[in-house]
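Researcher: Next sequence.
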Amino acid sequence: MWLDSIDWWPRHGYLLNLFSGLTGACFGVPFALVGLDYLTRSQAEFRETERARVRAAAEVANFVTSLLDVFNGRGLDDVATRVQDLSDRIEFARSFRFDDPERDDAVREFLTEFEELLPEPQGRPRERFRSFTRDSDEVRRMRLWRTGVKTQWRRLDDGARGQLAGDWIDKPTETAGHQAAEYLLMDGRNPWRLVRDAEREGIMVMRHFLADLKALCEAAKAMEAHTG
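Model: Next structure:
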């Protein structure tokens, strides 16, 4: 500013250009570097997030495959709808007294519909709750199914859920799914495990099993929508 006040700059045009360039570099280059660094980091974070979402989608697909493995359905939505219908039917059967003949009719109707979702391996219709324990191969198959579902859920917890921290399904659905995976086919929730009085306790046992299955289906649907 002092050189300008004595008209020094007009007589030294080359130095004026050099000084202007140096001033621009002192301020412009740092700002440019900061901006480029921000854009580079943003793009890298975006690519990593997309890779994590792709991995999460693959893990969710594996979980859904494991969950539906034993059921006779056209996909997750179909199985979830059938589970809801069965839950409604078991609640209807539960509304009768144990010695009410209508209870037996309601149970038979429920078992007929359940057979469509999960057919008896030997093709013998299940007519009572104690029928679930008569086939050791089916008992073993359901035990392996439970192991597969729980294993895939843990992988989701360790993988997709951690990779997409802060960007996952809603907490109530996730919590219900987590509890269902933990409780799945435990004592008192497993129709394939013989209880003291299968016919009296069967409705409550089946009700718990369907509740767990419903929670897992809802969580699977939410995860598919979130990662799809």
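Model: The mean pLDDT is 85. The CA atoms of residues 177 and 215 lie 5 Å apart.
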